[in-house]
Amino acid sequence: MSKIVFVLCFVFTIANTDQIRLDIKEVVLDTQRQLIWQDNSDCKKVKKTWKEAIEYCQNLDFFGYRDWRLPYIEELFYILDKTRIDVAINKSFQNVTSDDYWSSSDIYGGGIWMENEFCKWKR
Questions:
Q1: What digits encode the pLDDT tens for the residues 43-60?
Q2: For residue 104, what are the contacts with CB-CB under 8 A and spacing of at least 6?
Q3: What pLDDT is attached to residue 112?
Q4: What 8-state DSSP symbol labels residue 85?
Q5: Close Cβ partners of 40 (under 8 Å, ≥ 6 residues apart)
Q6: Is there a contact between 54 and 104 (Cβ–Cβ < 8 Å)?
Q7: Please, what is the Cα angle at 121 between 77 and 18, to 5 degrees?
Q8: Helix (H) or strand (E) holding 53
Q9: Residues forming a β-bridge with 20
Q10: What is the domain count for the chain?
Q11: Whole domain around residue 66: which residue ranges?
């Protein structure tokens, strides 16, 4: 059985501060690591299997970029906020859920996802 998880895509950028939300653009900029995170309503409602999530990000045309991808599991930890209980994602993000999020990290043909601060693997 395939696990269906929420999709959170991002793309590389160049800048120099921390994680800030651009409300009008529906993105969160991580300027320390030079990442742009999608933060629109799709982040709460788009549920995909691992392979579908990879394809969704590869086909995403958003915020003027077309080179989106699923984050590596390590990159999901950049947005983790251990001080939060239900949704352990940085409060710069507005469109979050307490459900799981896929990473592009691959183990033996299956994906790894983040469930709050814990990583899990599913083939």
A1: 888 888 888 888 999 999
A2: 54, 69, 70, 71, 72, 111
A3: 65
A4: S
A5: 26, 27, 62, 95
A6: yes
A7: 10
A8: helix 50-58
A9: 29
A10: 1
A11: 5-122
